[in-house]
Amino acid sequence: MNEKKLSRIKKRPADKFMYFLIYLCASLSVILLAGIIIYVFVRGIKSVTPEFLTTVTSVRKGTVGIAGNIVNTIMIVFITMIIATPLGVGAAIYLNEYAKPGKLVNAVEFATETLSGIPSVIFGLFGMMFFGQTLGLGYSLMTGSLTLILMVLPLITRNTQEALKTVPDSYRHGAVGLGAGKWHTIRTILLPSSISGIITGVILAVGRIVGESAALLFTAGSAKALPKTFAALFPKIFQSGGTMTLQLYLSATSEGDFDTAFGIAVVLIILVFLINLGTKKLAVKFDVKRKK
Amino acid sequence: MNKPKKHIGESAAKYVFAICAAVAILAVCSITIYMIAKGTPAFKNVGVSELLFGTLWQPTAAEPSYGIVYIILSSVIGTGACILIGVPIALLTAVFLTEVANRKLASVVQPAIELLAAIPSVIYGLLGLMILNPAMYKLEKLIFAGSETHRFTGGSNMLSAILILAIMILPTVVNVSASSIRAVSKDLRAASLALGASKIQTIFKVTIPAAKSGIMTGVALGIGRALGEAMAINMVAGGAVNIPLPFNSVRFLTTQIVSEMGYAEGTHRQVLFTVGLVLYVFIMIINLMLQRIRKGREKNE
User: Fold this and answer.
1) Is residue A151 domain-shared with residue A244, that is, in the same domain?
2) What CATH superfamily is the domain B40-300?
3) ipTM of the predicted structure?
């Protein structure tokens, strides 16, 4: 009789139905991703030619290209990261190594949490008002970068904090025991041991910047001109410049040029994949290190 | 020997790091101040009730009207609907990753979700524009065939935006829920199985309730993400302020700012800042909720 009961439990049809739903939902994201990639590549791969990547769209010359947008993207990533990385790492060091638990730490952590929850449109509005108008930077790569710094700061701070937390306390005690000061310990022991965590944060931030559009629309503008010489890159910092995502948006909406839009989409997807791969490689390295 | 010199370096380092940490506080404070300072003048110029409860949005008419109630409702309803669609799918996917899948299957699904999170929102918008909108238009023509009151949108509608949002919140909810399900103690599951419950019963009656606060965190993050999303839904939801019905073209808080800030002037511009302020208040409420859930969790631990 017991056996009969057990076999009846096994055959619960509700269970089977739930299994079916679970498999269905899980396969949905794989199918979605595959669909997105295939569709974008099929539509866009023919647009991505060497000319597309090295020229600027011009009716006069008859060229279609996104070289200017690529340069703008690289410059925004560079300017943002060169300022945001030390700021974020510094904040994490302060929180983990210097500050004693209390109101100040809570305030910084609350602020970091809040910053990471603020939508990019709001950052865009604030950047436009504060950096663009109050500081008079107007629509420029600098305004865009300053805005994005605030946006990626939490990412870098949090990843650095996580990395610092994994450094064993014995390292710190050892360094102090040998007579090293705190700053000396941080410079020579803590930062080198948590470097892969910091780099992970940096790569994630770069990915976020590459994909960002709403925060840049009213801060960096949409110019697509390509600086002619290397020296012309520097004044460009204070001029308007649209990134690849922004050009995709404009191409797909006001300009109605879907070939360019899909071409950019292909480039962006490849970039995003490489960034994802990079973080994963680092995570593996990180894990191996920790296990030792 | 050179102790004093070292001392200066040491204390200087401390202050430099403290300043770095203060940047986040400074940023949040100035964003809040700016949003309030720029977002409140419109209340005075237009009138609180006309602005917040007015249904007519005609900023460029001869007699302009700035009612944003439909914009607010679109954001609230759109977010709610995408949560209703997205969260069950995300939760079941999280269950798949943590309880059902073997390593090999999980190693296919997990990266797929990570990549979905990494795809820029403009690409979602582009695909929505090319695939979802035409499909919606067909559906629209079928449903409203012969209707004289319906204004045809060409497929740019609320429903498209909801579907795009549901996809975009998936990764956030899946990842947070999965990690909280993973954190549920093995003993609980073992006890439930030993009492004769099936695996599915254990998952839904024991494991998920035990992971509830983590899942709530995921849902709150998803709400925040959906409320704040701008570019993707701007491309698929159409360009007119309307009652948020599935087949109407609608404007959300975010898309209203993105599509009109470029040319708005005077009171129109002020009202757009008010729209930003409303969004900011919503996001702050979500943030406070998140902090509360987190604190509750810490206490439980």
Assistant:
1) yes
2) MetI-like (1.10.3720.10)
3) 0.91
Q: Please indicate, yes or no, if residue A34 is contained in any of the structural domains.
A: yes
Contact call for B286 and A117, based on CB within 8 A:
yes
Range of the domain at A148: 50-291
* Nearest-angstrom CA–CA distance, B97 and B93: 6
CATH code of A231's domain: 1.10.3720.10
Q: Where are the alpha helices (DSSP H) in A60-218?
A: 67-93, 103-117, 120-127, 141-166, 169-177, 182-185, 191-193, 195-211, 214-217
pLDDT tops 60 at residue A292:
no
> Is B187 within 8 Å of B170 (Cβ atoms)?
no
Residue window 178-237, chain B: list those with CB within 8 Å of chain A: 196, 198-201, 204, 221, 224, 227-231, 235
What pTM was estimated for this model as a whole?
0.91
Option in B23, B101, B201 nearest A26 (CB): B101
Say yes or no: A38 and A108 in one domain.
Answer: no
Structurally, chain A folds into a number of domains equal to: 2
CB within 8 Å of chain B, chain A residues 139-178: 150, 153-154, 157
Could B27 and A115 be called an inter-chain contact, meaning their C-beta atoms sit closer than 8 Å? yes
CB-based contact, B167 to chain A, within 8 Å: yes
